[in-house]
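dumping the sequnces here before i forget
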Amino acid sequence: MRSSLILSRRDLDFLLHEWLGVEDLVKRPRYAEHSRETFDAVLDLAEQIATEHFAPHNRTADENEPRMVDGKAVLVPEVKQALDVFVEAGLMAGEFDEEYGGMQLPHVVGQAVFAWFKAANVGTSAYPFLTMGNARLLLAHGSREQIDTYVRPEIEGRWFGTMALSEPQAGSSLADITTRAVPQDDGTYRLTGNKMWISGGDHELTENIVHLVLAKIPGGPPGVKGISLFIVPKFLVDEDGSLGERNDVVLAGLNHKMGYRGTTNTLLNFGEGVHTPGGQPGAVGYLVGEPHRGLTYMFHMMNEARIGVGMGATVLGYTGYLHALEYARTRTQGRRAGAKDPDSRPVPIIGHPDVRRMLLAAKSYAEGGLALGLYCARLVDEEQTAETEEERARAHLLLDTLTPIAKAWPSQWGPVADDLAIQVHGGYGYTRDYPVEQFYRDNRLNPIHEGTNGIQALDLLGRKVVARGGAGLRLLAETIGATTARAAGTQWAGLAADLDAAVARTGSVTATLWGTGDPDVALANASVYLEAVGHLVVAWLWLEQALACEGSTDAFHEGKRAAARYFWRWELPRTRAQFDLLESLDRTVLDTDEACL
Amino acid sequence: MRSSLILSRRDLDFLLHEWLGVEDLVKRPRYAEHSRETFDAVLDLAEQIATEHFAPHNRTADENEPRMVDGKAVLVPEVKQALDVFVEAGLMAGEFDEEYGGMQLPHVVGQAVFAWFKAANVGTSAYPFLTMGNARLLLAHGSREQIDTYVRPEIEGRWFGTMALSEPQAGSSLADITTRAVPQDDGTYRLTGNKMWISGGDHELTENIVHLVLAKIPGGPPGVKGISLFIVPKFLVDEDGSLGERNDVVLAGLNHKMGYRGTTNTLLNFGEGVHTPGGQPGAVGYLVGEPHRGLTYMFHMMNEARIGVGMGATVLGYTGYLHALEYARTRTQGRRAGAKDPDSRPVPIIGHPDVRRMLLAAKSYAEGGLALGLYCARLVDEEQTAETEEERARAHLLLDTLTPIAKAWPSQWGPVADDLAIQVHGGYGYTRDYPVEQFYRDNRLNPIHEGTNGIQALDLLGRKVVARGGAGLRLLAETIGATTARAAGTQWAGLAADLDAAVARTGSVTATLWGTGDPDVALANASVYLEAVGHLVVAWLWLEQALACEGSTDAFHEGKRAAARYFWRWELPRTRAQFDLLESLDRTVLDTDEACL
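..and the predicted 3d for all of it:
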């Protein structure tokens, strides 16, 4: 069988089973109905549907981005056709409870399944991605009635969902949102305001859209503490679940992006008076949970959403790598170094060391990022289903610490894998006749959305590593230490020693940064800190993968070892200069006056 | 006056006059008619025309790429309008001899002038860029008659030129071209073959197109030694200079690229029988110089072409930086770190340290690359007009050594500046409503064309630093040493010491790499070598700029110091890990079997 250029099933099997021991999860009550066979079956299904229904229109959707026609967002028909197959196969429900018609798959398996769709067509896969996140949030914080009314149709794939947070003037700074939600006598709210960057904000893919909207109730506390969360459906829902009046949520414009074009990205107006549900002005909204706790609810779901974005960045890099590898094996050009005979035959370009260097680098980023994403997804399962409270708390703390890295690291290095994929293709890679340029454009969004990488850096250094007296960082160090201890006496002892040194360095640098008493100095260097710790974490996961190869010497496992060695020799050393810089408490950026730029 | 977002005239004046002392050139006979005033006047003119005629259609040309209609390439009309103004202003002729109607500008001034057009609209500016390179090559190697027939109309801007090297199966490996040129009794040749990636290969901008084509004369030596260079005009030219028959050069297709869309990029068929000039098959070609020396002639012009590509990459990064700076000064969001009052006003985002970090990094890449490009252009002037043969030879050797860096370094870091420019803009930067995403797409071509960066790496490590017993590298070390000596006792002594150490390291690493006797080991690490030496060179040019600021303390010069400090503290240290890697003679890439990827 010709191997897929979307993702590597072989690698997924390695990560899930040879490394993460995912099959062990079936011993837990929640996953008792599952087995290696059911996991395999759903992965087979995902690969098949991604290959047959998602990948073929990836370019089509890029070239024919959503258009606004008569106030509606119109997409190419292939998007709906693919999503209908996805829903029909039960994949929207994959991770959800049986009681809602779900398969109760472990999150780590769900992420591996969904990776196929993101890699095949990130634009189309955004609709279910957002819907699943929306449903999860409501399951955690919505009322029974809200779950029955809105979540069930989402899990059934009949309605899709959005997350409507940002506004034109408030992207990263949600404290500044101005959308208002005024309470009504009947317990509902009426919303007015404008939301920006809302993916999936309008379309005709489903009969209704469930918007989750952040807004402020007048009289509440200022800033982020006064933000509440509301369900604002496109169509109001009658008591029997049928669709009622059109709510006053109106498509005000589409954003035209460099990539990710298949996903409608919208400007939405709430309560502008285009519709007047119930004869009253304002978009009807239903409060989720308690007032003023909206951001807390959102952040509760943020770990999974951010890991999801990191996974998207990884698999876009991964498919770029696979396409470059295929190209390098088939494209002939040039001679082996030292072959002076001009009559000798050109060789496949994979024979050139510099091409292999690029492929090895891309492999180490793509497979390293996938390991990171699945490791974090496994932690979500631990957090939710580990036997003891202590294990669950431990998983929660480690996941919390790793989340900014799981979002930002693949968002930085996945695009580099795509950049290398273009370079391997040469001029052909720069043309739209080959898919790698689209992966590159699509992937550029990932360092921006779901919290820019700069925000992730502040989250890691400003919150995660200092919370609870540094318990998160200590736990990460212990966890890495357990791995390096296992490497003693193996061929990986050198990598383990370098990792131990980098871990120690992280601890001392963190103490130095916060020891100044001047948070500005610390936070001005947060992005470098994030990069250094991110590389350390991925180097650790490469050691984990190398150790999981023990005893296997086939080409696949040798490839893992080669990438681990590459990451050790070529990548981990980057962190030394970064730690040096951090330790020097450099003030260059802080001291540069704005007028001098 | 609102400062330009295309380029900074203030910076150009600093580089040309406060640093490179370009005015000194007017003491030389070739530039005797010039003065600071004439240089200023042509720079003023360039800024004005770039602003008024090139920048406005940059997005238009991107969105309406050339189409093939009835076998012709059709462009938006703004391209011709802009180029007519450019030609009318005498800018095509800027650097050429007065005898051809030129201004005899120094190359360094010509590059500064042309930088405005590349930054404003890289797609449209490619036509004159190619034409000037074509004309320069013919001036150096063509016959008197060829110059009169083909070069004069090019300098007058009536005809444009191309460079037709690559073929579908032969991009980087010109040895493998198969286009044939068969000698005829009348001294002309008849060419048959297909050329790929030919920029400006067809259009209606000018009445004729002068193709410079590499082809093999049957019976010649195999490989690169059997390549000859031919003039193949789109229309044959009668003795009186008027246009005659259509030659058999046919537009076979257009390449659809991710960026650089304004430049027609073509597949051309030569001698396919669509036209039969003189009733005979084959495209009529005229040999330039001697048979089998085509590649030598091409390489003679390569330094300037490669510096030109590097300049393009730099100024695309530069304009990205300026747009990001403007955005960061006007876009408000978030609060100063530590400002806990939620009622405080949002600040311009330039107030956030992480935004300043990104701007400072982009500034250091853009202005560092511009310094590199103009320094090399100044060397071209030295090479051609310095008083003594020794000075000219010295300039030639240094230029030869720096050329792969001048091409590759900006091609790597200019796109990073554009990447940072998008990030500063957040979600807006990812939309096509802002120009930075186009700069990012356009700039991605630069590491590919005019010799991929991998080819530049082989050129530097495999040829330039070993040629003449390492004389090039020694000269570079001496030149850098002269700068660091001047820094003694200044605030820059620390940077100078780090530079001296890096220079010493370059020498020892080069010796180690070549000392193995195994060229594979050396060349497998060529790209890292190029990156490390490139960063060293740009750090040196930042020291040069910092020293040129001595005695000035206004915001502009403080900004130069801030960027120099940034490059010293944040960028130069990257090279340590790279040199360590090189010194270890790492075999990871070499030893990775193709089957393991």
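Chain A touches chain B through 101 residues (CB under 8 Å).
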